[in-house]
Amino acid sequence: GVLDSLDSSSKISNGFPKWESHTPGTLTPAGPPDATVPSRFLACVSREETARKLENIFGSLGQLGSSVEVFASKNIEAVQNSDVVLLCCKPQIVHTILSEPGMKEALEGKLLISILAGVTMSQITNWVLPSTRVVRAMPNTPCKIREGMTVVSNLPPSVHSETDRAVILKIFSSIGRCRFLEEKHFDACTALSGSGPAFACIFMEAMADGGVMMGLPRAEALELAAQTLQGAARMVLQGNTHPAQLKDSVTTPGGCTIAGLLALEDGRVRSTIARGIQIATERASELGQPAKK
Ligand SMILES: NC(=O)C1=CN([C@@H]2O[C@H](COP(=O)(O)OP(=O)(O)OC[C@H]3O[C@@H](n4cnc5c(N)ncnc54)[C@H](OP(=O)(O)O)[C@@H]3O)[C@@H](O)[C@H]2O)C=CC1
Ligand SMILES: O=C(O)[C@@H]1CCC=N1
């Protein structure tokens, strides 16, 4: 089911929020119609060429794909015909898009969800009319296979209805996990889960390289590395197990795991990774902001 109990007030034990088991759903309604499940999707791009590409992709998706209409350079028309608008352009051009003549009016009274890194709610709120309900979300690329992690900014009850919350959860928990957090954490979330797949892939590639160095064929080395990372991650998420516990349970006294762990620690692996998140967070905070002189 959806993770609607996972707001910032969820209980923490042993450093872990209490996770509910979560099977990502789909946006295709089963049973009676549900007002919180979008039934029509309008995808906006700027170029005809991209529009054709998207049409081919959606065309190959069968029933779900056929509910998507692609618009090239027709943002106003698409927004006029929508209840919920997902803003997914590059941070540098958001102001241009929101300043298109007629855009403010087209967005009046609507839910506007921005996935832009670094662009704050207050910036977006300043570019739209007061009746537009602005929300920030930070998804990541595993959303493509419904294994995403999306963080959504907390919804103040004075602005958002239960329907907004339900719509947001339907959208993002259909493509992975979804959690609400305060906006002040967004740059860190952008670095950790938004950029995180890239960091995880570097680690995965390095593990595979180590296997190749020791004579494993490349393809098998990569399979072993990827499935091992997936398995460890699932043990953490499904078992509410702390990574340190998992690590200790693999580590036989005097065995090979501790030998490998010490070599990694000599390379300052943990502080290097943690600093990577710190630097990416700092960079995220600069995106969508005026360039410093
Ligand atoms: N990549 C990631 O993992 C994540 C990215 N984000 C955020 O998502 C956003 C998009 O990033 P990314 O997907 O990499 O960027 P892309 O360049 O791949 O996508 C941007 C899209 O915006 C369209 N576009 C550009 N100008 C306009 C316009 N004037 N009107 C309508 N559509 C337009 C482009 O269409 P066309 O190709 O036709 O020009 C393109 O389809 C960024 O703000 C980023 O911060 C957030 C979370 C994760
Ligand atoms: O690198 C970026 O700016 C975007 C935001 C999060 C992931 N990619």
TrEMBL record:
Coiled coil: none annotated. NADPH binds at residue 75. It comes from the Eukaryota. GO terms for molecular function: pyrroline-5-carboxylate reductase activity. Its EC number is 1.5.1.2. Gene3D superfamilies: NAD(P)-binding Rossmann-like Domain, ProC C-terminal domain-like. It catalyses: L-proline + NADP(+) = (S)-1-pyrroline-5-carboxylate + NADPH + 2 H(+). This is Pyrroline-5-carboxylate reductase.
